[in-house]
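Q: I'm writing a short methods note and want an example of a predicted protein-small molecule complex. Could you take the sequence and the SMILES for zinc ion and return the bound structure as tokens? Please keep the output block clean; save any remarks for afterwards.
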Amino acid sequence: MKKFIIILLIFIILIITTISFIYLHNKKVKRLEYEKTIEGMKVTLIAGSNKKDSGNINSNAYIIRTRNNKIIVVDGGRDIDADILYDYIIKYGDGKVDYWYITHAHDDHVGALLELLNGTYELEIENLYYYFNSLDWYEKYDKRGFETEKAMIEALSNYKIKNKVECYKGQIIQMDNVNCEIIRIANPEITNSDNGNEASMVFKLTAEDVDKSMIFLGDAYVYTSKELLEEPEKLKSDAVQMSHHGQNGVTKEVYDAIDPDICFFNAPEWLYNNDNGNGYNSGKWQSIIVREWMKEKNTTNIVAFKGDQTVRFTRDGFEMVDN
Ligand SMILES: [Zn+2]
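A: Understood, no commentary inside the block.
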């Protein structure tokens, strides 16, 4: 009987050792797979609710990987996009985001982040970058967005965020081989326009080793455009997140100064085609006008309604990749 128990114990120990070995080994292989391929940066546009069958509504979310697999998230999308985003954070970062940037606190940009912070998700955000106007300002000037803005400002003290960094204009943040330059932060004096959107932070990510950049405009609008054009040379970028989902955002002069090769449209199909249900260009949105501006520049357009897409920024240009 004693002998039997000893054999059984050895057997159990053997099984546990084997299982842990396989598990740890797999984890390591998974990480290496991403690490070895990266030079420059990989930008994944997460389509989420822009897709017809998952909401058919505008949402802004990106996950970006540096050369040594540092994970950067921009915005994150709507609350209903939280699970999709979380899957990426697990896949690429084992549940940890190294750098998270918020353009502005509207629900189509920070809804997923709020969901991840307040829900039961295991998540660690090493650094969160943002600039918000005061709560009073949002209450007074952005009634439509106020509930989310309030929730976001309150969530800044959430335990899942290790360092929160209130950004300033001209700030440079070094992240592995990628740097971020903060080009513009919210200006409380802008109160006579589309206020919550005009409170967008604008920043540019540059992969230094391959000299390629992408500018994020959030939902910046006409008054922000005037500010941006005070230093047009700062705007030049290889790629752009089209402002306000590709319509009614920044002015043509701003896109001229950016002069991009590649444009990311975070829009559902109806918005991209200005289709109110009666066909192409039947709506009241500015999307076709903006698309015409970009057509003049011969840009490649990446559109969210077609699903998640990853673009690798390389020395020679851009390539679409699987992961
Ligand atoms: Zn938006």
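A: Remarks, as requested: The chain has a mean pLDDT of 92. Residues 58, 60, 106, 108-109, 219, 245 surround zinc ion (CB under 6 Å).
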